Amino acid sequence: MLLNQAIEGFTKYMHLIDRSQETIRGYAIELKGFNNFLTVKHNCPVYLEDIVLQDLEDYLFYEKERGAASSSRSRSLYILRSFYNYCCRKDLCVKNIASLLEPVKIKQKEREFITEDELGELVAAIEQPVIKTVVQAMFYTGGRISEMIHLTLEDVDLDGRVLHIIDGKGGKDRDVPINDKLHRILTHYLEHIRDAHSNRFFALTRTGKVSASYINYWIHTAVEELGWDKNISAHVLRHSFGSNLLEKGASVVSIQKLLGHSSLRVTSRYLHQDTDKLTEAVNLL
């Protein structure tokens, strides 16, 4: 069987077992890149049974050479293992050669985060009113950018003060309470800013939706205008949500549930503790 045919079967299988749309899309993009790499390497379409361990290693090395981060290459390896697990279960191949790959050591680095005061500066520097609101919503809910842009009007219950995130990462649903600050912001947005014929909650008048790239464009433009020496993106707002909650005394378990993480180990990567806080901690002794 041709590799691209096996990938098509794997994609259909992920739909069958109700993997999230974001997961399916991400896996499909990664495996398409893998197929393209092998097609160029061998100068012809590749059959699944002809692929050897060296091909997988060459692909991961190619990813490294083109500057992919260790976390990105680790994800590539995970996707290849999932794909080969599927192929073995369906008797498309005899052996899961991806299981023989060495794990990619991920370099842990301090994650950027912003305070609530810095959020105020950032929002003030963003000229687009819809994007201002998206940025505030991400900071006060910890929502992923993909979750924010797909929110519908029905997902945001201002009367019940809860934001329903449907089909989040891993296909999981969760509810995030809307605090008083965000409630005022979203109420003002609906009454005075939103002017779109669309079911999307965050929507531009012209397109009826917002894109992740457009949100990040306005964030990066605002950061440059402010002259900050920080690499701020939409995802940093999610980190900031967890970091600020921890600093204000929220439990890690509560933060885990609000962020929609399956384990505390994942949550711990999102939490920032500065030197002053660590010094205060050791001084407790």
Automatic annotation (TrEMBL):
Entry's localization field: Cytoplasm
SUPFAM superfamilies, alphabetized: DNA breaking-rejoining enzymes
Major subcellular site: cytoplasm
Family matches, as PROSITE patterns: CB (PS51900), TYR_RECOMBINASE (PS51898)
Domain of life: Bacteria
InterPro entries, sorted: CB, DNA_brk_join_enz, Integrase-like_cat_sf, Integrase_catalytic, Integrase_recombinase_N, Integrase_SAM-like_N, Tyrosine_recombinase_XerCD
Gene3D superfamilies registered for this protein in UniProt: 1.10.150.130, Intergrase catalytic core
One protein family per Pfam: Phage_integrase
UniProt keywords, alphabetically: Cell cycle, Cell division, Chromosome partition, Cytoplasm, DNA integration, DNA recombination, DNA-binding
GO biological process: one example: chromosome segregation
Presence of the UniProt keyword Ion transport in the record: no
A GO CC annotation given for this chain: cytoplasm
Residue ranges of domain Core-binding (CB) in the record: 1-88
Entry GO MF terms: DNA binding
Cited function: Site-specific tyrosine recombinase, which acts by catalyzing the cutting and rejoining of the recombining DNA molecules.
PANTHER family, per database record: PHAGE INTEGRASE-RELATED (PTHR30349), TYROSINE RECOMBINASE XERC (PTHR30349:SF77)
Family from the record: Belongs to the 'phage' integrase family.
Protein name in the entry: Site-specific recombinase XerD
Organism: Desulfoscipio gibsoniae DSM 7213
